Amino acid sequence: MEPRVRVHRLAEQVADRIRAQIISGDLADGDPLPKSEELSRRYPVSLPTLREAMRILEAEGLITVRRGRLGGAVVHRPSPANLGYNLGLVLAAQHADIGDVAVALRHVEPACAALCASRPDRAQTVVPRLRELHEEYLASIADLPTVVGVSRRFHEALVGLCGNPPLIVLAGALEALWSSHEESWASRTEPRRVPLTQRRESGEVHGRILTLIEAGDPAAVHQLVAAHLASAQRNPKPAGSPTIDLTLLRELMQPSGEASDPG
Question: Which one, 93, 97, 159, 204, has least CB within 10 Å?
């Protein structure tokens, strides 16, 4: 067993070095990893050890690997979607469902929105992005799948712009789980089931959220976002089982051009 233990430890050391480069930004999101020959020169280990290191990084979501003659590995910076996938695994093992995710969001997203309203630099960092998304929402209101996607980006922005990194990551993971289910629901739903009046009402609430953030009123925006989520989360209504479907999130995480085992 000792040779196998040693191979695994060497593979972890190689994975540790590449992971550090990804986290530091030396390897940027979307960068290709060098081919196996170059990696072998940088890290003088056997090919099986190198492949084991790649499997570790791929399991962590830090690279995507495509086998074959045109294969290679592409870097992915850690993201809330990665955490959302792992969170979904844990929740599924605890028999939680997408409704539980919705309840959690009703507690954490209003706190993020309140932090957005508390930012002294909100006029430069928060308001322009929310206004852009709000205008895009109004422009695409006739197309249900499109407007649901824009709405999700508006809510994700309330989290992503709150200015608190731990909350951004944790709430962002919940948002990623919910968004994957809601966008899948929207793509399968007849537009008449969500009438234009309902979409306009949601757009009006988004506009009021934007106004309260711009005015710097965290208490009022917390209350409004909580009420809005309680109403808006009528969708998606699970067809059959409300079980968390991790394949939906994996599809959102999948890059347009995947990659695999160096070699």
Answer: 93
